[in-house]
Amino acid sequence: MRIDIITVLPELFGGFLTESILGRAQQKGLVEIHVHNLRDYTKDKHRRVDDYPFGGGSGMIMQIQPIADCIAALQQQLKEERGEVYDEIIFTTPDGEQFTQPMANELSSLKNIIILCGHYKGIDQRVRDKLITREVSIGDFVLSGGELVAAMMTDAIVRVIPGAIGDSQAALDDCFQDGILAPPIYTRPASYPGFGDVPEILLCGDPKKIREWELQQAMERTRLLRPDLLK
């Protein structure tokens, strides 16, 4: 899989993309992650990529030219090198579709995606109409830019690629994989002064009974903490 991230602040990604699961997945050849500085594609001598909005109002808007040229360059490169196209061109925006675990699972099965990080007040609507295939949000709030969103999406997508995690079952047992929250979890020691004991059911050695208990606990936690998921 290949993920291309377009941003005005590439330095924000730092070591995030090269450490832990993301780093190991790249070393194994499971994914390629490339970060592109949008300013490298602007024709403005001052490397500006934004301008004032028509009709007045506050804030600045990302222009068409650098975005269109950057995406066109990436598309051409991918076509020449691999004879492939991008499956999705994603724009991170507060008014986009809610990013979920099922979406992460879906995107992990694709070969090539672009993530365009929103910034300033947003991007010219014509870019959204012409180039963007999917608009994604991580919640009903506004960040200074889409870099954090792109980093979170990349992590969620890559970790479910087969082989990215040593124990592949671990990713399948995460919260939201089956539409509900995960059950409470415990580790050794079974008893710790002042903290109590591990539930006896987890020490019984009967996988069927343990799974039943975990499902019951997961449903109860979901009912209390995220009843919206049960709808």
SSE layout and pairing:
Layout: E1 2-7, H1 20-27, E2 32-37, E3 50-51, E4 61-62, H2 64-82, E5 88-98, H3 101-108, E6 112-117, H4 125-130, E7 134-137, H5 147-158, H6 168-172, E8 191-192, E9 196-197, H7 207-225
Helix pairs in contact: 3-5
Task: Give a summary of the structure in a few sentences.
The chain has 231 residues and is α/β, with parallel strands linked by helices. It is built from 7 helices and 9 strands; from the N terminus they run βαβββαβαβαβααββα. The model has no long low-confidence stretch (mean pLDDT 92).
Q: Would you give an account of this structure?
A:
The protein is an alpha/beta fold. It has 2 domains: 2-158, Alpha/beta knot; 178-230, tRNA(m1g37)methyltransferase, domain 2 (Trp Operon Repressor, Chain A, Orthogonal Bundle), CATH 1.10.1270. 33% of the residues lie in helices and 18% in strands. It contains 7 helices and 9 strands; from the N terminus they run E-H-E-E-E-H-E-H-E-H-E-H-H-E-E-H. It has a 5-stranded parallel sheet with strand order 2-1-6-5-7, sandwiched between helices. It has a two-stranded antiparallel sheet with strand order 3-4.
